[in-house]
Amino acid sequence: MCGVCGCEQEQHGVRRVAVERSLLEHNRTQAASLAKQLAAHGIDAIGLLGGPGAGKTALLEATFEAFGREAAASEAVIEGDCATDFDARRIAAKGVRVAQVATGSLCHLDAHLVEHALHDMNLLGVSRLWIENVGNLVCPAPFPCGESRRVVVISVAEGDDKPEKYPAMIAGADLLVISKADLLPYVDFDVARCIAGARKARPGLPALVVSARSGAGLDSWLAWVRGEGA
Amino acid sequence: MHEAKLCLSLLALAEQSLAQAGGGRIVGVRLEVGDFAGVAPEALAAAFPICAAGTAADGAALQIEIVSGRDLVLRDLEVI
Predict the structure, then answer these.
(1) Which CATH number fits domain A25-225: 2.40.160.100, 3.30.559.10, 3.40.50.300, 3.30.1130.10?
(2) CA within 20 to 30 Å of A224's CA: A10, A45, A162, B58, which one?
(3) Architecture of domain B3-79 in CATH?
(4) Do the Cβ atoms of A107 and B59 come within 8 Å?
(5) How far apart are CA B19 and CA B14, in angstroms?
(6) Hey, is A209 helix, strand or coil?
(7) What digits encode the pLDDT tens for the residues A50-107?
(8) B76 interaction partners in chain A (CB closer than 8 Å)
(9) Are B61 and B20 in contact (CB under 8 A)?
(10) What is the tens place of the pLDDT at every residue in B23-41?
């Protein structure tokens, strides 16, 4: 009996087949092509990432309120959640075009899901697409979705150690938003420690402290969104 | 959390590579997992035999090497 599979032969000729390919390659290629298509249509795609309840949707609501009537014409949102269309309803209530992707048990969006969601959307006149990923600080990290910039949102209620605990997500970020700043008097959250922790994973990462509720820090956020730097 | 789905991508890539290499049966799979890939090697190892059942890699041994980085790379296959 052979030692490989237990068959009758004395010995198998085992050969090595070199592959040297990434499992993430397929999604990366799809995301790059999607990003190119969006750019060709003059659409700036921004990915919003963070844990469940970090305040990603609230930040969008505040953003669209600040943009006023212009938001309905130029903004579009893809909402990723395991279940419900709660977030899509919140966005639609601001008059903004939105598609909800219910991922079921899937823990992150990918380029394929986003592309499908876009097929059903009227993007005429849209100049900015928001891709709000499933609330999760781990799984979406290695799956680009066609966005050109990634924002990681961490609320003060979550704790200032989160960037150090979830370095893979921070490593792919272009901006850190520290949200729910209105709660700072009530929680032990060291803003400097949070930012320093994030910069260990991504040196020089810009960071903003924002409250969607009080409006504090929103001006800097809106400037960053418009591409005017953080 | 998404290790089973990654296992399916791994098996699709393995079977595609096997077909290109003239077919056979896969008895070994060598995978490189980046420490920043957001993937738990234990979960991958647990999901692999279940996902591999009924494929050309049924019963294959999965060897995982941890490297630095954010990628997941299928290095090579052992084929009989």
Answers:
(1) 3.40.50.300
(2) A162
(3) 2-Layer Sandwich (3.30)
(4) no
(5) 9
(6) strand
(7) 999 999 999 999 999 999 988 888 999 999 999 999 999 999 999 999 999 998 888 9
(8) 16-20
(9) no
(10) 999 999 999 999 888 788 9
Question: Which residue from B1, B14, B59 is facing A138, i.e. has the nearest CB?
Answer: B1
Q: Give the start-to-end residue ranges of the domains of chain B.
A: 3-79
Instruction: Give first-to-last CA distance, chain A, whole Å.
Output: 67
Amino acid at A220: S
Burial per residue of A83-117, b for 16 or more beta-carbon CB atoms within 10 angstroms, e otherwise:
eebebbebbeebebbbbbbebeebbbbbbebbbeb
Which helix (H) or strand (E) covers residue B64, if one does?
Answer: strand B61-67
The Cα A97–Cα B63 span in angstroms is 46
